[in-house]
Amino acid sequence: LFNHLLQHLSTSSEAGREEALVGNVNKLMVTPTGYTGVSRKSHLVFDACFESGNLGRVDCISEFEFDLFIRPDTCNPRFRVWFNFTVENVQETQRVIFNIVNFSKTKSLYRDGMSPVVKSTSRPKWQRLPAKNVYYYRCPDHRRNYVMSFAFCFDREDDVYQFAYCYPYTYTRLQHYLDSLERRNLDYLQREQLGLSVVSECVCVCACMHIRVCLCRCVSSLPHHTVFNRIPESPQPRSSSPLLHLFMLSV
Fold it and tell me: Around Cβ 74, how many Cβ atoms within 10 Å?
């Protein structure tokens, strides 16, 4: 009974700490437990205070392993999926394991071979991590939440590395793209404000009308074709956003 009570208290305490994740880490240097000396290379500095960033807490398990806690979706603490953060102050050839420990999804493409993306200041193009270095599993140490762990080796000390759930697509990028379309004064494109988000950002609707290209052969016999696609305007981008960007380019 005593052990069961201790386990319950530990679980409740961790749950409370997760609910308290109200902001992103900001240039947070993480040192091993009990370390009191001066900071040095290999003491990783985490940051997520930028658009589409998400990392609420970092626990140092050892010099080589870190538990990372992501913040929940806006107004819905049940959903925790997106992560996007940077790491710097690394040591050349330093190997680490990052554990994203509080995923809310039971089904994920990470179980089927998908892997996070990474880039650095000297290699600004996003690349996927090797699938063999990524693991997705239930973890008894974290209330049997799904955990995604990935191994990585830093190879350049002066680089800042950025890791994300998938290719980020920010609200600012979307607005710049829609602005560029408006400047072209296209006869068939109409952009209007549909409403405001919970943080008072504009939610737009774009109508592509009278396009001569058939968008969907299966409804070609109908007098009018209406294709409705939504680009999520959220602090946590979705993998569908770049695809819808390409769709807009095609029409």
Answer: 13
pLDDT band at 245 (very low <50, low <70, confident <90, very high): low
Q: How many helices (H) and strands (E) does the chain have?
A: 3, 13
Average pLDDT over residues 116-128: 98
pLDDT digits (tens, 9 = 90+) for 56-69: 999 999 989 999 99
Q: Which residues of 183-216 are buried (b: 16+ CB within 10 A; e: fewer)?
A: eeeeeebeeeeeeeeeeeeeeeebebeeeeeeee
Q: Radius of gyration (Cα) for the chain, nearest Å? A: 22
Mind listing the domains of the chain with CATH numbers?
2-164 (2.60.40.3120), 171-250 (no CATH)
Angle at 138 between CA 134 and CA 144, to 5 degrees: 145
User: Cα(244)–Cα(249) distance, rounded to whole angstroms?
Assistant: 9
Q: How far apart are CA 37 and CA 98, in angstroms?
A: 24
Contact between 148 and 107 under an 8 Å Cβ cutoff? The reply is: no
The average pLDDT across 147-173 equals 95
Find the length of the chain. Answer: 251
For position 73, what pLDDT does the model report?
82
Cα separation, 184 vs 108, in Å, equals 40
Contact 19, 77 (CB under 8 A): yes
Residue that the structure tokens 């009570």 belong to:
5
Q: Please calculate the CA angle 25-116-128 and round it to the nearest 5 degrees.
A: 130
pLDDT score at 61: 95
